[in-house]
Structures are given as C-alpha cells and as structure tokens.
Amino acid sequence: MAMxxxxxxxxxxxxxxxxxGVNFSVEEGxxxxxxxxxxxGKTTTIRILATLLIPNDGEAYVGGFNVLKEPDKVRKIIxxxxxYFGVYDDLLVWEYLDFFGAAYRIPRADRAQIIDRTLELxxxxxxxxxxxxxxxxxxKQRLCLARTLIHDPDILILDEPAAGLDPRARIEMRExxxxxxSMNKTIFISSHILSELSDFCNxxxxxxxxxxxxxxxxxxxxxxxxxxxxxxxxxxxxTDLKMASEALQAYPNVSTVWERxxxxxxxxxxxxxxxxxxxxxxxxxxxxxxxxxxxxxxxxEDIFMKxxxxxxx
Length: 313
Ligand SMILES: Nc1ncnc2c1ncn2[C@@H]1O[C@H](COP(=O)(O)OP(=O)(O)OP(=O)(O)O)[C@@H](O)[C@H]1O
Ligand SMILES: [Mg+2]
Hints:
Blueprint: E1 2-13, E2 16-27, E3 31-35, H1 42-49, E4 57-62, E5 65-66, H2 71-77, E6 78-81, H3 93-103, H4 108-121, H5 137-149, E7 155-159, H6 167-182, E8 186-191, H7 195-198, E9 203-208, E10 211-217, H8 218-225, E11 229-235, H9 241-249, E12 254-261, E13 264-269, H10 276-285, E14 290-295, H11 300-312
Parallel strand pairs: 3-8, 3-9, 6-7, 7-8
Antiparallel strand pairs: 1-2, 1-4, 4-5, 9-10, 11-13, 11-14, 12-13
Helix pairs in contact: 3-4
The structure holds adenosine-5'-triphosphate and magnesium ion.
C-alpha cells in the first residue's frame, strides 16, 4: 500500500494556479525527496498532505486515509514539520515538547521519558531546561523536528528542514534524518537542493511551477539525465550570446543551452566524447570568439534541474 498517494492535485490561490494536477506516490519505507525551486508548489502540496489546506481538485491519501474525509486519522500518523518555527518565547525546551505531547494525548506518566528520548535523538539533551528563545537557529530546527517525532509517527512530512542552516547544522540535520531512516520511517522531505538529499533518498520528485516534471526511483532518473556532457563555453567580451546560443542549438546533439554568465554559455552535448572539439571548431567557423571551452563542473542538483527541464521543453 502506498503511504502517500496524490492524484491530479490542483490548488488555486486567487490568481495563481499553484498545483496543476500533481501526481506521485510514496511507498512504505521510502525516503522521498520533493525538489523544486522557490514557488514551485512544495509547501502547498505538503500543507494539503498535512490536512491544513484544502485542494480545489484531485485526491490525496496518507496512510490510506483520504486527507479531506479523515483528517484526524491522518494527523495521528504523520509528523509534520512546517517551514517556519512559531514563537514560543516563554517556554523551556522540555515544556515545549510536553505541550505537543499533551496535544497528542500522550499520557502524562509517559511523557517525561518520551521527551528525554526525543531530546537525546535530536541532540538537544543539554538544552532540556533552556528557553526555546535562547536556542540557535539550527537547534530550533532540530527542536521542531523533535516535536514532529513526539507521538512516534510512521510518516514524516518535512518542509525544508535544513533551510537557513549553516553547513555544519545541515550536516547534523542530515545525520539525524539518516537515523530516522534507519528507524524505518517513511519520510517525505522537501528541499530546493537536490544534492542535499540525493545520498539518502531512494525516490525523488521534481516539481516546477505546479507541475511534476519527474517522479520515481532516483537511480533510474539519474541514469536518464546523466547521458552526455556539460560544456562551459566562455566568449570574448561583446559577443552576442543570443546568437551564439542559437547557433549552438542548431548543432547536432546539442540538447540544451543555458546562459551561465554575461559572457558564458553552458551546453548539454549528447554527442560522442571525441566529437566535443567539433563543437568548438563549429563556433570558430561561425566567427564566434571563444575564450575558454571546458567541461562544466556542476553539482548534481544543477545538472538535474537543468537537464530535466531541457528534456521536457
Ligand atoms: N496563501 C497564498 N496566497 C496566494 N498565493 C500563494 C499562497 N501561498 C502560496 N502561494 C503561491 O503559490 C505558489 C506555490 O507556493 P509554495 O509556497 O507552495 O511554493 P514552494 O515550492 O514551497 O516555494 P519555497 O521554496 O519558496 O518555499 C507560489 O506562486 C506562491 O506565490
Ligand atoms: Mg515552501
């Protein structure tokens, strides 16, 4: 049974169609990375799954329950981490968790032990008696995650848990997520950075402007997009990049061209590796002044976003 199933989900805000018929499914034990740039519709989708927002059309099921018809059942089995941390200035860390534990109707007698265990898991044991307002951003984020774990949910729905963290805190967050993975939780996690998720997600979905571009097994998708090479071409100053880009697009096996900089283009070339230099000769022949021509070093997420987009257009 799918733990999360979304069918043809549509959400409109006044004049924005934030979700234009989104489909995907997440199986038990999956770590599903939900990737997309700002405004893609990630938070909108997540809030629908968390029963906080009503879609205009389509269906969503979490743990087999329809989010519209049985929201209470959905809430019990999910741990939802929002993309913001509310203000809880006057609470101590343990009180904060106790508050949520009570909200989930965990018996008082069990709460202390559960809170201590959760604090230990999220590496916040030493902050048990600190004020929430005195925590650093990274600690607050971990506390927010701790709160989603308090009722031991099977499904975690996390909206950019690593957003705004420094590199060290990001790594700590990642370690924590790995630990949750090893506890066999199904995790649905959004981010605008794929590389951050790629080493522990087994599935990814890429959403852009309310449309799902790809969804599925990460290895299969990576294979699909990793053919060919990315070449970075720097032109002499004053080059008409638009013309250069058009010339390149007309060249065989060039699948996509992007502007990288004021004087640089990046090309996804799917021809043979030995023929790469022909692309350069072609440009020179056409009268373009090429300053540098080299394999582009890109992080995974870059390649992913661009190549996928190139494929769809
Ligand atoms: N309450 C709202 N009223 C009107 N438009 C909204 C509202 N919430 C979101 N939108 C719009 O819906 C679209 C999707 O927004 P959403 O917050 O789901 O994106 P996101 O992928 O989470 O982006 P980010 O990476 O910035 O968090 C955007 O165009 C946004 O402006
Ligand atoms: Mg968001």
